[in-house]
UniProtKB/TrEMBL annotation:
Chief place where the protein resides: membrane
The encoding gene: Dram1
Domain CWH43-like N-terminal intervals: 8-225
Protein name (record): DRAM1 protein
InterPro entries attached to this UniProt entry: CWH43_N (IPR019402), DRAM/TMEM150_Autophagy_Mod (IPR050911)
Biological process per Gene Ontology, one example term: regulation of autophagy
Keyword Ribonucleoprotein annotated: no
Keywords, sorted A to Z: Membrane, Transmembrane, Transmembrane helix
């Protein structure tokens, strides 16, 4: 199905499907192994202990790579559109790409340094991934509005901005309540100390994560119109 998509639409489609599978598979394995409680764990909790840690690390690293490729193609797409429409500065487009790639780097850190093994590095990676991701989708939403009505419909722009707003709103309590948790653990049970902080923060974390997934889902239609060609021309002096 992915190979039959026109243009380069298969790239964000693969990113969305692979990332969703990464979250779901590692969650199912962790729950079945009895390593976490099934009700609203942190995303990182689902990839802390083996065997799910190996699956989580591998799949999230691939997701980071796919996200970087998607962002770069999006950058090229906007540059191409901008040649005729001039709706955004090239420097702004490049800045947005750099922010997105920072988020991908943060994802790689989260996947490589497990929550219980190196918590400080893991937390920094998560902060970079989520923080940069929220900024990236917000900037992309603004750019989408600037490209209307030639390159985007207002309906798609409204959807993207709504996802960005929800993600931004969820990001703040995610950080605030996570900072109030006084211990690093994955086996949370209702009623214990800091459980409420964990519960609210985890809900917000899943909201932001799937906000990213739904946002990239909106790229599929845009990517259908474009294809990448590799030049094989040889120029002689």
């Amino acid at each position: 199905m992915l190979c039959c998509m026109p243009g380069v639409a298969f790239v964000p489609a693969l990113l969305v499907s692979w990332s969703s599978a990464a979250f779901i598979i590692s969650y199912v394995i962790a729950v079945l192994a009895g390593h976490i409680e099934p009700f609203v764990p942190y995303i990182s909790d689902t990839g802390t202990k083996p065997p799910e840690s190996g699956v989580f690390g591998f799949m999230i690293n691939i997701s980071a790579l796919l996200a970087a490729i998607t962002m770069y193609i999006r950058y090229l797409l906007i540059e191409k559109q901008n040649e005729t429409s001039h709706f955004v500065r090239s420097s702004c487009n490049m800045f947005t790409l750099c922010i997105g790639l920072m988020g991908c780097t943060g994802m790689g850190i989260v996947a490589t340094f497990q929550e219980l093994a190196v918590p400080s590095v893991h937390d920094i990676g998560a902060l970079v991934a989520f923080g940069s991701g929220v900024v990236y989708i917000t900037l992309q939403s603004v750019i989408s509005y600037k490209s209307c009505p030639r390159w985007n419909t207002y309906f798609v722009c409204h959807i993207r901005m709504a996802i960005s707003a929800i993600s931004c709103i969820a990001f703040i309590p995610m950080i605030v309540f996570a900072s109030k948790i006084s211990m690093t653990k994955i086996d949370w049970t209702p009623g214990e100390k800091d459980y409420t902080y964990h519960f609210i923060s985890a809900i917000c974390e899943w909201t932001v994560a799937f906000g990213f997934i739904f946002f990239f889902l909106t790229f599929i239609r845009d990517f259908q119109r474009f294809s990448l060609r590799i030049s094989t021309e040889i120029h002689e002096d």
